Amino acid sequence: MRLFAVPSLILLASSAFAQGLLPAFVSDTAGDTIWACTDLDQDGDYDGALEVAAFYDDTVGPVALTNNAGMKAGPDGRLYVTDTSEDFVLVLSDIDGDGDAHDAGEAVVWFDGTAGNPSGIELTSGRGLHIDEDGVVWVASANTGGGGDDAIVRLEDTNADGDANDAGEQLEYYLPAFGSGTAGDSIPASITRGPDGALYYVETGSTGFFAKGVYRLEDLDGSGTIDQPNESAPFFLPTSTSGNSFFWDISVDADGQFLIDDTGDDVIRRFADTSGDGTITEGVESTIFWTASGSSLVWNVSQGSDGAYYVTEDQNPDRLLRFVDANSNGLIEDAEVSTVYDETTAAVNLGSPKAIVVPSLRDLGTSYCGPAVPNSAGLDAQIQLRGTGVAGAPLEAVVIQGPPGEFGYCIASRDQGFVNPPGSSGFLCLANNIGRYNDPVFIYQFDGAGVSQAIQGGGPVVLPTNPIPVNPPTPAMAGETWNFQGWYRDGMTSNFSDGRTLTFQ
């Protein structure tokens, strides 16, 4: 399973994946492992055989992990991992497509924070991180008492040599408790960029020097660092119901709302500066998005392009949760929570799940065998595929420029062809063992604009790839190339779209 490319967050959630799960990567700080989770049988969980596999295991890979707590996917599709003990940013990618990052060049120390870099910056406890669209990496790092600074660190590979270890590529952007001299005054835990373009970081300091909560950073004078009193300010300082709030993660969802978890109060808070005054008025601009039904050590929340929120819960038993705000009231109720991984029933133990990364859907494949023969609407039909590209994960299929009112379904094959079958005006662009997605759930009808709509529920048809319905049914495997085409009625005859060829990752 090759590591997928991750583009900008798709703001419109995809309803087609509401029943299945998107693939996910989970960091395990107990087993020093990054796990790849895929719902291969599309039963709504990652508990089945082969559904959790080691993407990176430090007993196999070349770089040791100790407490790999932070993880994000960059715009280049690679995983960026921080470790609170190993003082680095590790980058993982599956270059050879064999489903792991254990091979040569696939696990790279992208930034060495042992003070051996040209700036002498120590990443003594690198925690949460954020990656901008241009590849700039921001890390929340804490002083351990034995060295380093409480800092927001800025990293960038300016010479495109594959790391941020060269002169001018690392910078302490902000030192929250500069000059205080007391460990624990500031403990930066996580960072993200807000909808307004400013940076927001989570502060979990233990001495009271800073109130716990979210702080806003903006380089107003353009100096390249936060060095003026008005450039950093409290943004949201929640009132704790337990008196012992502990915040670890901050993120922004597709609606532009911030999310922070609070393992002390067993809640996730959601908030946005709707007034534009630079602060959050508690209870007016913030809500308790989710309250755990019992004790819950929630560490990370990641929204997928299916609109659902995927959550890691590190306790006994370890679980992964999925939230769907089905009634759109801005809150997650018990009926809207599903357990998608439970260590007591799963085939593989995730150990100690911390960060979770869920991919966005993207356009997949390459057109071939086109343009198709024009249909009765005078247009050449075209097939489009969207998904993650991960082997075993489903595909959204849409056929455009079809004849309004006509029905059709999709077909697939390992082999390409070019033949005009009897009774058709178009060309079949597949050959040999051809699979037909012709069960009712896969049948579509063209709407008035010539866009295919699933006859059961509308929208794109969701095609399973585990298995693909050839004879015998065969699952798509990483590295395999499959071809897809739309076949539809066209008046007194039938017709075909162009073909779409896709190599699974």
What does this structure look like?
It is a single chain. With 505 residues, the chain is mainly beta. The protein has 2 domains: 23-357, YVTN repeat-like/Quinoprotein amine dehydrogenase (Methylamine Dehydrogenase, Chain H); 362-503, Immunoglobulin-like. It has no helices and 35 strands. β29 (407-419) and β30 (428-437) form a beta hairpin. It is elongated, with a radius of gyration of 25 Å. It starts with 23 loop residues before the first strand and ends with a strand.
Any key phrases for this structure?
505 residues, mainly beta, Methylamine Dehydrogenase, Chain H, Immunoglobulin-like, 2 domains, 7-stranded antiparallel β-sheet, 4-stranded antiparallel β-sheet
* Helix vs. strand class: mainly beta
Any idea what the shape is? elongated
Number of strands: 35
Distance between the termini: 5 Å
Number of helices: 0
Tell me roughly what share of residues is in helical segments.
Answer: under 10%
Work out the radius of gyration.
25 Å
Rounded mean pLDDT score: 90
**How big a fraction of the residues is strand?**
35-45%
| Overall number of domains | 2
CATH class of the largest domain: Mainly Beta
Give me the CATH superfamily of the largest domain.
Answer: YVTN repeat-like/Quinoprotein amine dehydrogenase
Q: At the third CATH level, what is the topology name of the largest domain? A: Methylamine Dehydrogenase, Chain H
Low-confidence stretches: 1-19
The CATH architecture designation of the largest domain is 7 Propeller
**Largest sheet at a glance?**
7 strands, antiparallel
Summarize this entry quickly.
This protein has 505 residues and is mainly beta. It has strands at residues 24-28, 33-37, 52-57, 70-73, 79-82, 88-92, 107-112, 126-131, 137-141, 151-155, 170-174, 188-193, 199-203, 213-217, 232-236, 247-252, 258-262, 267-271, 286-291, 298-303, 309-313, 319-323, 337-342, 353-357, 362-364, 366-368, 382-387, 395-400, 407-419, 428-437, 444-446, 452-454, 461-463, 481-490, 493-503.
